[in-house]
Amino acid sequence: MPSTIRTAAASCEVPRSQATGLTLLFAMAVGIVVLSLYASQSLIPAIGHSLGLQPGTSGLVTTLTLLGYAAGLFFLVPLTDVVENKVLIIGTLATDVAALAAVALTTNTPLFLLACFVSGVTASAIQMLVPVAAALTPEAQRGRVVGNVMSGLMLGILLSRPVASLTAEVAGWRWFYGGLALVVAVLALVLARRIPLRRPAGTVTYPRLIFSMWTLLRQEPVVRQRALSQALCMAAFSMFWTAVALRLSQPPFGLGNTGIAVFALVGAGGAIVAPIAGRAGDRGWTRRATLLAHAAVIAALALAWLAGEDGFWRPEASLAALGLAGLLLDMGVIADQTLGRRAINLLRPEARGRLNGLFTGLFFLGAAAGASLSGLAWVAGGWPAVCVGGAAFGAVALALMALGRTAAP
Prior knowledge:
Elements (H helix, E strand, L loop, with lengths): L3 E3 L6 E3 H18 L1 H17 L8 H16 L9 H21 L3 H14 L2 H11 L6 H30 L1 H22 L11 H14 L1 H28 L8 H12 L4 H10 L3 H23 L6 H30 L7 H52 L6
Antiparallel strand pairs: 1-2
Helix pairs in contact: 1-6, 1-7, 1-8, 2-3, 2-7, 2-10, 3-5, 3-15, 4-5, 4-6, 4-8, 6-7, 6-15, 7-8, 7-11, 7-12, 7-14, 10-13, 10-14, 10-15, 11-14, 12-14, 13-14, 13-15
C-alpha cells in the first residue's frame, strides 16, 4: 500500500505520488488565474485610450482589480476553513469566468471597472489552493512545496504583462480577457476532477469566522510582521510595473506593445528565486534572506532611476539596465513573499485558510496602494518620483526588519 498524507480536517487520504502531481497542477492553476491581476499594467495606454481615462486615473483599473482581490482574500478565502474546498474553489472560478467575459465585452466605463473589481475578488481562488497544497505536505518539506506553488503564482504575475501586451498587439486588449475567460473555464473543469475533497471540521458561523480573523491578527505576530513586510515590497513592485509601460513608451525608448511585452519577459526570470527562498527558510535562514530581499528592492529602484534618466547612458544600455532593475526587483519581492508564506503555513493548521487570506489580503492592500500612488507620482514628478517612492517603501521594510525582532517561526 502506498504511503499517504492525511489532509488536515479532510475526508480522504492522498498518496504521496499524487500529492506531487497536485502540487504541479496547483502551481499551473495559480499561474493562470493570477494573469488577470496585473495584465492591465501593460495595457494601461490601450485601455485608457479606449475608455477615455487620463494618465493620472488610469491606475484605477489595476487598483480596483487588486482591491477586489484583497476583498476576496478577506471574505472568501476564510471559507476554506469551514466549507468543503473543492466546491468553494470551483464555484469561485466559475464566477471568475463570468467576470473576465464581462471585462472583455463591456464598453461602459463604470461597468468595466466593476467587472475588474469582481474579477479581482474571484481571482482569490488561487489562495484557496495554497492551504490545500500545504495540507498535503509534511512540515519539513512545506517550504519547498509552498515555494514551488509560489513559483507558479509569481510566474503568472510576471508573464501577465508580456502575454497581455502581445495579445493586444495582435488582436486587441479585449481578446486577452476573453481568451483568459476561456482558459480559466477549462482549468476549472480539470480541477473539478483532480482536487481532493478537503472537508474542514469547523462549524462556526460566517460572521464569527470573519471576526476571528481579527483575533488571529492580534494573536499571531508572524502574520503582522510578514504581512507588513510584503505589503511594503508589493507597493514598490506595483509602483514600478504600473508606470514602467508609460516610461518605455517615451523617448529614448519609444516601445510599443510588442517591445513592452518583450521587456516584461525579463522580469519573469525572477520566479526562479521562489523555491530557493523556500529552502532558505527550511534551513533557518529566514531573517538573513529577508534582509537580502529588501536590499534587492532598494537597489533595483535606484538602478531603475538611473536607467530611466535621459542621456545618462546610451539608449540600448539604459534599456538593458532598466530590464536588470525589473529582474532584481521581482527577485526581491518574490523571495520576501515566499519566506512569509512559508512562515504563515507553519502556524495553526485549523486556521490555515484564514491566515493565508489575512497575509495575502494585507499585502495586496500594499500592492493596490502602490498602483494608485504610481499614477500620482508620475503626474507629480515623472519617472524619478516613481522610483523614489518605490525605493522608500523598500527602505522602510528593510529598516523594520533590521531594527525589530524576527517573530518565529
